[in-house]
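Late entry, evening session. Most of the bench is empty. Finally got around to the prediction I had been postponing all week. Sequence below, unchanged from the version circulated by S.P.
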Amino acid sequence: MSSITFDVLGYARQLKDAGVTDTQAEIIAKNTNDAIRVAIESAREEFNLNEVATKRDIRELEISTKRDIKELELKTEAMIERSKNTMLLWMFSMVSALAALMAKGFHWF
């Protein structure tokens, strides 16, 4: 991870050149440096690199998702085919039963 540097002495010099006393410039520069360091540490704690997805992670997820979708499509198609066959068998059975009842009722046999 890259590092951020803050030139405390340079900042203190700029403050002195702007008319701030030596003591005030040093205190302001030190406190500013401390604030920056705390902010950076806080950001590092919040931004956990172990939780960041890489392009490779995303690509693997994409491939896995596409594979899962294809499997679901195949399973769905198989279920639809089984349902069609079951429905056709049921309809044929019902038509046969109805024909038998009609034949018996009309004394065709």
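Two things to note before I forget:
Residues 55-105 form the longest helix (51 residues).
The chain has a mean pLDDT of 89.
Will write this up properly tomorrow.
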